[in-house]
Amino acid sequence: MEPLVEQQIRASFVNCSKGEARRLNLPRKLDELPWADLDFLGWRDPGAPDRGYLVAPSRGQLTGITLRIAPGARRNLLRSSLCSICITGHASGGVDLLVAPKAGPAGRQGNTIGTYMCADLGCSLYVRGKKKTALAQRLEESLTLEEQIARTVRNLDAFLAKVIVGAEADAAL
């Protein structure tokens, strides 16, 4: 992923107001992030642990979404879980059900889309082996690293498409 600056990140959000995008807490030290190892920028809000944010290149543009831990969702602290984006297995509590308000009128009506994701939104780093889970080792796969990265990007694109579906048609009106 190409390095991003604050203005690009804030302008990319599609499922919140411009005012909300201006007020959200960005990751500290953007210039020190491992951009070459990231397929998307994902972070949790240290001031509001139930919130997260994700910014990714998608469909030729930068797309940012706000996320929350699903209301009523409980972390499974007794067994392992699998991230739906990067297919990384995590021990107790390493995966959260995160929901994103849909973009446009559907989101303003309260409609959301959810998926199970790495709780720290570090999918890119787990796939590349730059970050380790609490499990003894990552699941062994027959896919190459490049294929695993491509799968992660496809899974994320599919999730983002569900968040923005319908909003593009509304924007054209």
How does this model look, in words?
- Helix content is 27%, strand content 25%.
- It is α+β, with helices and mostly antiparallel strands and 173 residues long.
- The chain has one domain.
- The strands form 2 sheets. The chain has a 5-stranded antiparallel β-sheet with strand order 1-2-3-6-7. A two-stranded antiparallel sheet has the order 4-5.
- The longest helix is centred in the C-terminal third of the chain and has 20 residues.
- The chain is globular, with a radius of gyration of 16 Å.
- The C terminus is likely disordered.
Pick out its properties.
single chain, 173 residues, two-stranded antiparallel sheet, 5-stranded antiparallel sheet, disordered C terminus, alpha+beta, 6 helices
Helix content: 25-40%
Query: Looking at the structure, what is the overall shape?
Result: globular
Radius of gyration: 16 Å
Instruction: Report the count of strand segments.
Output: 7
Strand adjacency order, main sheet? 1-2-3-6-7
Strand coverage percent = 15-25%
Give the N-to-C terminal Cα separation. Answer: 32 Å
What does the largest sheet look like?
5 strands, antiparallel
What is the topological layout?
Elements: H1 6-11, H2 18-23, E1 41-45, E2 48-58, E3 61-69, E4 81-82, E5 89-90, E6 95-101, H3 105-108, E7 112-118, H4 123-127, H5 145-164, H6 167-172
Antiparallel strand pairs: 1-2, 2-3, 3-6, 4-5, 6-7
